[in-house]
Every structure is written in C-alpha cells, then in structure tokens.
Amino acid sequence: MLGPNGTPFQPATFQLTGIPGAQRDLTWIALIFCILYLISITGNLAILALVLQEPALHQPMYYFLSMLSLNDLGVSLSTLPTVLATFCFNYRQVSFNGCLVQMFFIHTFSFMESGILLAMSFDRFVAICNPLHYATVLTNRRILAMGMGILTKSFITLFPFPFLVKRLPFCKGNVLHHSYCLHPDLMKVACGDIHVNNIYGLFVVIFTYGVDSTFILLSYALILRAVLAIASGEQRLKALNTCMSHICAVLAFYVPIIAVSMIHRFWKSAPPIVHVMMSNVYLFVPPMLNPIIYSVKTKEIRRGILKIFYKSPA
C-alpha cells in the first residue's frame, strides 16, 4: 500500500481472507471450525484435568503429555479470535500490531510442539532402552527443566520475528490469505529487502523442525534396535505398543508440515485454496487429534476417562 506521497507504509489493519471462494458457505465453515475448537479445547482440558487428578498418572510420560496438551491449547487459543471473527461474524480486519502478536504466538506454540514431541521421544527411549534407570533419569526436576528449556528456546528464537516484520514497509496491499496471521503470508505483501526475514525464517525452521525431527528419528532407530533385541515376540509387541501414541502424534504434526513444504517448493502454481487448506490442517488437526490418539491408544488415559464418566474403575 502507498501513502499520500506515494511512499510505502505500514497499514493500520490487515484484511483476512479466510478460505478463498467459500464466502457463500460461511455458516457451514463456521460450524466446522467451532466443532474443531470444541473438540480440541475440551479434549486437551480433559487430559490436563485427568493427569492432575489421577495419582496413577503422576509419571514422566503423562507429565510430557500434559505439556503437549497445554501447548495445543495455546495453538487453538492463538488462532481462535480471528478465525471465529472471520467465519462467525464476517469481521475480517485485524490491527497491524495485533497481527504481529498473533503471528508470534502461533509460531512459538508450533515450534514448542516440535520440542515437546522430541522430549516425549526421549522419554520413550529411556523407558525402553534403559528401563532400570527410568525413574532416576527422568526426575520431576529434570522434566521441569526440559519444559522450561523448550519454552525458553522457542520464545527467544521467535522473539525477533515481530520486529523484523515491523521494520518493513507494505506496498503490495493489506490482504492476507488466511484467517490468521503467519510470517510467510506477511512476507507476500511486504516490500523492501526481506532477505533477512527469509534467511532468519529458514534458520529457525532448520534449527527447530530439522534438528528436532532428526533426533526423533534417531531415538526411534535406537528404540527399534533395542526392541529387536528382545527375545520374546510378545514383549517386543508390548514395547512397541507403548510408543504408538507418540508415533501417531509425531505423524499428525510433521506430515502436514512436510506436505506444506513440498507444495510450496514443487507446486508453486497450486491454487491458493490448497495452501490455505494445508495450513489449516497443520494448525487445527494436531491439537484436535492428540487427545483422541492418547485416549484411544493409552490404557491408563482411557481408564481414567471411564472413571470420570461412569464414576467407577474401568
């Protein structure tokens, strides 16, 4: 956008698009998003309450699960204001500074989720490869330190982003392609030298997703080697079964990220709705799926839920 004297400037507000071409179906889209938020928020709050109330769940695995649920709540609440405003009330404007704040929290919680999944893979590695020292390795103090480390790393890494964006002029309009603010979307309407933003963004992605996913794969390579060394087939299956919930959570998080990256790199001519829908999957599906995955796959969580609903042990 250009100012009165023809120079580029920062707009007072950004216009959110939502889903291109779906303006006539706002009621149905709003209903779908409300259901997604309801499942996500209710499910993650239930996990947190369950771990807090059940003494049997006061174990490292469930402390990490609580971190994941708390983070998923952060992801959902970060997008909720503008998504509901866009689809429920057809209010599509967000202030410039409000957009930067939302962008910061969305990306911070996303990167934190990657770190929490890495910590959970370490938990499974110790439980299977070194079970005799599990309680001494994963003490409450170390778990708290790991959680604070993940939070600090994500906060410090993402902290420069709003300031890097704020220094830029915007001469390509103020229309964003989502119902929330993302750094790549803002770069599409910014002008001037955005090399610093792009380079730093690439560094953050590699430093976070790249490093975390590499260590997750390494953890499971070591876990698989340890499991294959178990003589009993039944014991091997039991050991692998303790990892299934975490494997599903990792896939639910990383598959959409990989898909978004592949589309951006190799399908540049893809319709805008493809990018929008994949970004929605990336932000909305993991927070919704994680409570369901752990409720279905984890016997202790399932038993605790049944106790809450039926007031008796399962």
From TrEMBL:
Domain G-protein coupled receptors family 1 profile: 43-294
Biological process terms in GO annotation: cellular response to lipid
Molecular function (Gene Ontology), one example: olfactory receptor activity
Membrane topology designation: Multi-pass membrane protein
Predominant location: membrane
CC annotations in GO: plasma membrane
Transmembrane segments: 28-52, 73-92, 104-122, 143-165, 199-223, 244-267, 273-293
Stored Gene3D superfamilies: Rhodopsin 7-helix transmembrane proteins
InterPro entries the record matches: GPCR_Rhodpsn, GPCR_Rhodpsn_7TM, Olfact_rcpt, OR51/52/56-like
Recorded family membership: Belongs to the G-protein coupled receptor 1 family.
Name used for this protein in its record: Olfactory receptor
